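Lab meeting notes turned into a lecture example. A postdoc, R.K., suggested we walk through two folding results consecutively so the class can see how the record format repeats. The first protein's sequence and structure tokens come next.
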Amino acid sequence: MTIVTSYDWESDTWTHNSDNPARQAWRTAVAEVAEKAKQTLPECNGRVEKAVQIVLNGDVELVGDRKAKVASQSQGSISYFIVNGTCECKDYPRAPSRWCKHRLAYGIYKRASTLVKEKVIQRESIESHRFDIPLPEAPASVNVRLTLGGREVQITLRDTNEQNMLERLEKLLQRFPAEKTKPKGGIPTK
């Protein structure tokens, strides 16, 4: 089973990692779309569940407008092409309203992808508006100058209390130790 974690909108592909909010969003969208399919097509519930497995396994590939390549669950070397709502599998002619599991998988995939995109856009819109609201001053903050990649940068740490902030500062300073400098006398110091 392939574990989907994040979706690259430019390459139209999924990347894999088991602990990612994108994976959870994808699985939630697939479940939501599948539930609607079960309500709309109750005679196809068993096929809907198999279609969900196909989608979550990453076995649906869009190959153009209204076209997809969907892998067979029973024969790993076979893929069926969905073109303009028609599938070439043996079940298609006898499936209720011609909703074979491959055609359902294609529909679930497309609708779930759209749903995830809408939620990402909505979340990004909400997050971009957060910066419009003035933030209160942090109870504890510190600025530190560090050299990263040969460049001097300033980092500001803010926290709800001084102890947490100082612990974070200590970790930061350990990660980027101070460079040794030579004083005018020539003896290196820290």
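The second example is placed directly after the first for contrast:
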Amino acid sequence: MIYVEDQLIKVNGVVLPGLVKSMEVIENAKIDEQEVEGSAAKPKQATGYEDAKVNVELILDDTLTQTKYQRLETLRAVFRKPGQTVPQPLPIVSEDTAAHGIDKVLFKKLSHKAENKKGQLPVTLEFWEYVPQTITAKSSSGSTSSSASSNLTANYQNYLEQGSRGTTPTALTSKTAAMTPMTLIASMAGMQLKSLLSPSVDNAATSGVLASVAALP
């Protein structure tokens, strides 16, 4: 088997160590199939494209300066730095990825398989294309509610400042107490007369009040 040696594959500024056994770049379209009752054919609907995937197979050997496991640590440092909790987009430099327009990836998977064969260490790397998403924030209805609330507050304030909101019961009682007997009787007589003119049935006795008014000098 022929391996490609010293092929330049650089991820996050680090040249991947070892011999490159293979490199595969996969691009897929998103196509949905729909079930149609009574028909063997499945209509297909294209909905977009999936993010590309990049698979790399490496062979790590011992060198004069490093063991294969030390070289594996170099790959692990690219996959996950100490203290890192979330994968970060990484720049990738390779002729094969550039041919597919891929310049940033997410390091999805790192695995190795120990084999008793010439002391070699096969390593598999899986990358997913990174496509940044743009999110447009929409204004909420909260501003509208605040505006409506402020308008109601302003209208209510104007209502309070007008001073024409009627008379409180306390004020009405004080006004009645200040009336003279003659004025109070006349006021009561006027109320009774209004009741008589009302289309509703009023069986209140008004003769006493009217007699009192007639007896006034």
